[in-house]
Amino acid sequence: MPAAHVLTDIEGTTTAIAFVHRTLFPYAAEAMAAFLRDHGAEPEVAAILRDVPGGERLDDKLETLRGWMARDAKETPLKALQGLIWRQGYADGALRGHLWPDVAPALRAWHAGGARLAVYSSGSEEAQRLLFRHSEAGNLEGLFERFFDTRMGAKRENASYARIAEAWGTEPGRILFLSDVAEELDAARGAGLLTCQIVRAEDGTERSSRHPVARDFDEVPFAAAKG
After folding, report:
1. CA 178 to CA 7: how far, in whole Å?
2. Do 114 and 6 contact (CB within 8 A), yes or no?
3. Radius of gyration from C-alpha coordinates of the chain
4. What are phi and psi of 7, to 5 degrees?
5. What is the pTM of this model?
6. Which residue pairs from 108-114 have beta carbons closer than 8 angstroms and sit at least 24 positions apart in sequence?
7. Residue 11 neighbours by CB under 8 Å, 6+ apart
8. Which of the two ends of the chain, N or C, has the fewest CB atoms closer than 10 A to its terminal CB?
9. How far apart are CA 124 and CA 122, in angstroms?
10. Three-class HEC string of the chain
């Protein structure tokens, strides 16, 4: 049965790895301390900080967050805070979401052709929405039905993809997952999803022999994507 749902990764798949590591992460790291001082008492931020270990003082929380950032840890509270900081940056016009040139036309075509689209990224739902809402190709947020993050589980665990299929209300075999990381694709296939590895030369992606490969979104068969 062909896929009727397309689930896409972001970093290395729709978006250059360099944008995440050289633009988004440094922006959040530089702004984190001031952001927490200015907004730490607000309910949304305070709720996230309660899940950050390291004592009750704001400086203790900040030390933990800086340690996570230094290790590029996929911790949900960190991702949520980064998303809030990026929200401010996008709103101020300091940030615009990078997409490879092939991505927006393909997403629009798949959506117009009847495919149902969603995102699964280690970045928070907030960060995902912001990138596509403020992308260089315009506001693409409305093309997606769902935005899944690490609340579904780690991206290299089969169970995470089973949860996504259940939350999306569809059979795993009707979902085509696009990612640059072979181990994520292994986990998705282990849960019954269809897979395609996006291998972008600019990002130095290592090609896997375990999955179908496309060099960009133009090479992902639209017939398979729309069902």
Report:
1. 6
2. no
3. 18
4. -110, 120
5. 0.85
6. 108/140, 108/143, 109/222, 110/6, 110/222, 110/225, 110/226, 111/143, 113/222, 113/225, 113/226, 114/4, 114/226, 114/227
7. 17, 20, 121, 122, 123, 180
8. N
9. 6
10. CCCCEEEECCECCCECHHHHHHHHHHHHHHHHHHHHHHHCCCHHHHHHHCCCCCCCCHHHHHHHHHHHHHHCCCCHHHHHHHHHHHHHHHHHCCCCECCCCCHHHHHHHHHHCCCEEEEECCCCHHHHHHHHHCECCECCHHHEEEEECHHHCCCCCHHHHHHHHHHHCCCHHHEEEEECCHHHHHHHHHCCCEEEEECCHHHCCCCCCCCCEECCHHHCCHHHHHC
Burial of 209 (0-12, 13-18, 19+ CB in 10 A): exposed
Which two tokens mark 214?
């496309």
pLDDT, tens digit only, all 227 positions of the chain: 467 899 999 999 999 999 988 999 999 999 999 999 999 999 999 999 999 998 888 999 999 999 999 998 989 899 899 989 999 999 999 999 999 999 999 999 999 999 999 999 998 898 899 999 999 999 999 999 999 999 999 999 999 999 999 999 999 999 999 999 999 999 999 999 999 999 999 999 999 999 999 999 999 975 555 54
Encoding tokens for residue 50?
Answer: 């309660």
Amino acid identity of residue 196, one-letter, is C
